[in-house]
User: Fold this.
Amino acid sequence: MTLILNNDDIESVLTMPDCLDVLEDAYRELAHGRGVSRTRSDSFSPTRRPDALYSLKSMDGIVPKLGVGAVRINSDIITWPVLAGTERRVKVPSAPGARYVGLVLLFSIENGEPLAIFPDGVLQRMRVGAANGLGVKYLARKNAHVVGLLGSGWQAGAQVMAVCAVRPIEVVHCYSPNAANREAFAREWGAKLNIKMVAVDTPEAALADADVALCATNSIDNIFFARWLRPGLHVSSIKRPEIEVAALKRADVLVLHNRDASPVHSFTKGATIPEKAKNKGWMLAEGIGFDRLPTLPQLIAGEVEGRTRDEQITCFLNNIGLGYQFAACGALLYRKAKERGLGHDLPTDWFTQTVHP
Amino acid sequence: MTLILNNDDIESVLTMPDCLDVLEDAYRELAHGRGVSRTRSDSFSPTRRPDALYSLKSMDGIVPKLGVGAVRINSDIITWPVLAGTERRVKVPSAPGARYVGLVLLFSIENGEPLAIFPDGVLQRMRVGAANGLGVKYLARKNAHVVGLLGSGWQAGAQVMAVCAVRPIEVVHCYSPNAANREAFAREWGAKLNIKMVAVDTPEAALADADVALCATNSIDNIFFARWLRPGLHVSSIKRPEIEVAALKRADVLVLHNRDASPVHSFTKGATIPEKAKNKGWMLAEGIGFDRLPTLPQLIAGEVEGRTRDEQITCFLNNIGLGYQFAACGALLYRKAKERGLGHDLPTDWFTQTVHP
Assistant:
């Protein structure tokens, strides 16, 4: 049978500590050449809505140790509005019922069969959270206990879950431009994680005492600046442009998630994404040697050094996601969902064939 | 609702003339920059079977005029045996019930929703047939009526369907190494297409009077040689290595399917595909300027010249497939399947989400 899971199923079984564990091992496998990651591709065309583009995104990965491969697909209507003075990349939920479209297909590498199909939303933020959490684990000071959080959206929740799973965090100061949003976020996540979480009204206030600065926005402009750096700080980002280049340059240790420089972009003629988004999103310009930076898999495998002294400034840049993460977390999810009997079973024959493809 | 179709549904609605029409227009759109094609990627890892590799293949495309994007995925166990003296690439049907795993996911570019999910097998050979059929339409002599066919497998059927749809074919001489196979093929397809089809026992006999030579094998060694060329012949191939390089060089007009030089290959350490398969499969070596060859979309759009004189030798090389073909034929399939009420409807909510991905 091929298992169809929904986000409630996924949320009920996928814990952050488990995701951290499975990804930590999967990254080590990848560093040792025992995993496969196919660079994300983004294809764009016009869509009905004139201020938007249609985007078909895909990424693949195989984790042989876990016996699975995965393809993650997103079929999105995307706009690039300016909100609170910064340019953002905003997906518009346009499918029937005002829903988003993101899917993961999980396959067995032993016999090729489709094991499961499920939406990507919950897993996607868990794997982003876990990747940045591993950045904190390997780079932040051991005694880090104060977090400054920039952002109060969907991704921010997973970021605080992850940091709390790898360091003895006592307090999180949270800033985002909308006061109601940041206050609701602080209430919700303070209660969920049983920690002190305080909404503050400037980014400076959020970062004042921070050991770890977590950037968790959908901004394609800078939102963290070099002037905020202090000795001993670990800065973590989920999107390339969040951190000012001057700040990246001042980091003593700067680690990328992985070395894919950008998605493979394909366009119809004229359907280019805003130039700013394109450049700020992916270019590591201005003298930072992208190709020479260490990656999270290398850091975890011990191939490169992390923090060696408390006063160093460290930085983790989650520059681009991998289908490989969906394979690793997907294997964990599949095993747990099967144990608990979750989801709809569909006949595997619906997704296989006698015809030679 | 998201429509789940099977190969019987697909075979019952998809005709070769319709596929030729939809692809001809889609290629013209692509030539004009009004389509998107993301190069195929093949990721390889070890699998349980020691003489095989696991392969996770994907390709994407968008046809704005038809309102759809598609992702085609193959999850295969692949071996490279030597059969009848030539090295082949053979997929082993390993999923439960000894089945193959190939899927197409079709999405709306207007709202992103998943319109349909279906196996790729029937559609895959229809689009290969139609692509080579368009090669015949634009390159073979108008009065071509004798076909020499090399191959008697699954792909060969679509090749004869396509050539008969675009030229007034009277007779097909069919050769493949196994006598029983070629005789069964000639009986089946002669009856299906109501033409004279004769199994012959050498490739030379198949090609003796041919106006069109159709190569339709899974060989990764040469099976068509320069010594068989004659003025006026059109040679058609579904796989890069079928035609000897010396023959490609002698063609007066040589047209590629498209300019993707090879799939994007990714491997675990050590899991390389046989060197021979890798080179013969994709390299256009020995002085043929791959980058300068015209493509089928350009030919259809009138950007490059096809055959101008009866005595010219023309050649069409279906060097690599495109997700774009699955989008175009998938749009046609979806429309026809909906009209006829075919397939299983699943709730679209199963494949969409409220969570921001």
